[in-house]
Amino acid sequence: MEPTIKQLRYLLSVSQAGSFRGAAERLDIAQPTLTAQINTLESKLGVTLLERSRQGAQLTPAGRSFIPFIETILEQVASIGRLAKEADGSLIGTYRLGVPPTLGPYFLPEVIPTIHQSFPGLKIFVRENAPRDLEVGLLHSEYDFIITTLPMEIPNLSIEPLFNEPLVLVCAPDHAFAEQDAVKPDDLHGENLLAIEEKHRLFDLMQTIALQFSARLLRDYEGTSLDTLRHMIGTGLGIAFLPALYVKSEITPRKDVISINFDGPTFARGVALAWRPGSRRAELYKQIAQIMRTVSHDTLSDHITLNMQTTGYDGGRL
Amino acid sequence: MEPTIKQLRYLLSVSQAGSFRGAAERLDIAQPTLTAQINTLESKLGVTLLERSRQGAQLTPAGRSFIPFIETILEQVASIGRLAKEADGSLIGTYRLGVPPTLGPYFLPEVIPTIHQSFPGLKIFVRENAPRDLEVGLLHSEYDFIITTLPMEIPNLSIEPLFNEPLVLVCAPDHAFAEQDAVKPDDLHGENLLAIEEKHRLFDLMQTIALQFSARLLRDYEGTSLDTLRHMIGTGLGIAFLPALYVKSEITPRKDVISINFDGPTFARGVALAWRPGSRRAELYKQIAQIMRTVSHDTLSDHITLNMQTTGYDGGRL
DNA sequence: TTCATAGATAGATAAATACTATCACATAAA
DNA sequence: TTTATGTGATAGTATTTATCTATCTATGAA
Question: Which CATH number goes with the domain that contains B14?
């Protein structure tokens, strides 16, 4: 057997009131009820907690020693109640957001402030992972929602498209392309094309590009991150197509590598917000997606293309 | 409405097991019972705590935020249970012992170690107060038990006599009495007799002595403690009858004042242990009283007289 | 004594809790 | 595809628990 919160509260009340009757009145219950509860509590614990007399009731030394525990228990219970009361807009708790490492650091800083402005109580814990692991992790409830790139591998996940992020051609400043106004598709023929590790979905897209333009994909020199890729490009190892938001964030402000106009078809990866279907927080996620789209439109429209249709979205694949 | 410990435990169990069925089995209850309890908990709090799916159940961000609170609550409850289990010999908790300032410091150090040896788990909080306040405080549950001097003013308190503590004649080393082998009752005639403040019951006894031997009670110079009384005696202000245990503890080891043989009737105050009648810890108090008597007999029999009769005890009054 | 008030008790009722049996759905294996 | 297994939800019932009203006994104060 185990004590009840109610019984503990009753005991505390009697100890404060100094009598069963007084406590019963304060608790708005009948005195026999109180007596019964205290009795069952005492027999459950096997300890006499109160010393009854005609003058009232006082704690025994044993009963006194329980009071601190009871007080913290009641405090914690009150905290739960308070917390639950605040949870009107389901803004309670910490939401775990998963993002691909090739996108998160260059996109989230743009939108997080606005999200916090719209949902002041919302706490978001961000963790990076490859899109594949993000989707599996979402299914296994390691994340509450994720930003991932299309196409998704796991079906039956609710998604809200955000935007298409084009890939931008990047080369070293001393590369021949640096002189040209625009690079034509034929110019890529035989060029050394660098790519990121295969576990990133971005790799597939880079591979598609290499294939389409007969460029040579340097598989022995795959970058473990976009930053290492940038350094490799800077040493003249090759050229690469990098995500536009990364270029905006890490290429444009520096001079070690440069971006070039590419006079050919635009390659882009689709970016979407996803969560487990049936989640009652779907409405919140949709609002967050809307904020992300709005901010993207307002501050990033030079770099990405927005695609607002929410059905039949093909993920921006070519 | 308020959550139940049971419901909180159920929630925690589901979150750990990852499914209702698994948790139900672990909790040894039926799954519908678990479902019902979680449902009522959710509706009570007004928050969705678990995300159900065909694969099991996972905490929502809100539910996750409650877990730390729930864990501390369950820990505290477990602590209460553990504490109660230890409370076999009612040795749990802290017992508040009240003692007169004219006795406690000179008697307790002799017996406390033995008490702790006999009851290793017993914690005793000692507070000093005048016997009158001790008795009232005992009645009002400010103390669990007291050492007091007889006769008691409040009836219907359970008492266990301990011993009689004689009063010993004390004077300055340069007083005429210091030369005598023994002081006779007639010698006290007209002597300046010092006494402690009236609020101490010891005052009554000192007054009785002064009256009986026609000594002069210096009421303008009442000591606030036995120690101040000792200092007053040392300056030659007068002589006094002081409790034997005080004399043993504070007079004999020093040279500032000396004790003298008094060739007259022995005055003594009765000392007893007292508690509220009906207390279920009476047995413990009786055992403590027995220890006090035994220790007194073994180590203090040169200074006090033991009176083992437990009924019809007159408190050592003359 | 008389009165007010303390906790204890008896008996009835309402509420909460638990169970069994079953359903509907999803996933994985045959 | 079919089947088996596992998920949570639901219906209905039995039991346990919590609560109430009415009453009792004992104590302390007026």
Answer: 1.10.10.10
